[in-house]
Amino acid sequence: MSRRFLRRHQQKLDAVRSHPLVYRYARFLDHPGLWHLNRRSVAAGVAVGLFTGLIPGPFQMLSAALVAVLVRANLPVAVITTLYTNPFTIVPLYLVAWWLGELCLGAGSTPMPHPPEIAWHQMVASAHAWLQWLLSQGKPLALGLVVLAAGLALLGWLAVRGAWRLHVLYTWRKRRERAATQIKDAVGPRRQ
After folding, report:
1. CA distance 90 to 28
2. Handedness of CA 52, 58, 63, 64 (dihedral sign)
3. Could you give the CA distance from residue 23 to residue 16 in angstroms, rounded to a whole number?
4. How many helices (H) and strands (E) does the chain have?
5. Which of 88, 100, 149, 156 is exposed most, by the fewest CB atoms within 10 A?
6. What is the C-alpha separation between 93 and 55, in angstroms, rounded?
């Protein structure tokens, strides 16, 4: 998210903060780190979003918001970052998590049972079948999810901090070059 984007939508953010359901919790949402774009809060927001994005079910955004408030991370960044898990990426991520869990436990190379098919016309039965499949995976999947979530959060935090630093260095260099050009133009060409 750029600063221009947040400035354009500042009134909408203020409207959300003054909503009656949100207003009750306004004292928790007043910390500047939850809303300002700085290196620390954005990196923490990305880490929170990447970590909570692997929580099964529809509780990813809610848990990202709660953890962001607790650790004073950028709230919109944390919530938006959870969107990396979606119906197309969740199965490969869970397969990687299961593999990491197997690797950490040293359980050997037992094949992972195939996930159940999704019956779009019977969503409740499908959700129940998926829950049973997830629970049948047990320790490897649970440990793998924690390891993968922590690894993604660390990588995201490092990537944001590094990219932010590179951007600041690039901006400083461009500013120095502009200043040198302006001084050179102001002094004019030297006569010999």
Report:
1. 32
2. positive
3. 9
4. 8, 0
5. 88
6. 11
Question: What are the pLDDT digits (tens) for 142-181?
Answer: 888 999 999 999 999 999 999 999 999 999 999 999 988 8
Alpha carbons 148 and 150: distance in angstroms, whole number = 5
Residue 157 in tokens = 């935090």
DSSP code, position 37: -
Token pair 């994005």 is at which residue? 53
DSSP string, 98-136: HHHHHHHHT---PPPPPPPPP-TT-HHHHHHHHHHHHHH
CA atoms within 13 A on the CB side of 90: 16
Instruction: Give the pLDDT of residue 82.
Output: 93
Instruction: Look at residues 136, 139, 135, 137 and name the one whose alpha carbon lies nearest to residue 147.
Output: 139
The dihedral formed by the CA atoms of 105, 106, 109 and 115, expressed in degrees to the nearest 10: 0
Tokens of 156: 């995201």
Question: Phi/psi of residue 108, each to 5°?
Answer: 95, -165
> Which of these, 118, 145, 120, 147, lies nearest to 130 by C-alpha position?
118
Q: Are 10 and 48 in contact (CB under 8 A)?
A: no
Residues composing the chain = 192
More confident residue, 31 or 156: 156
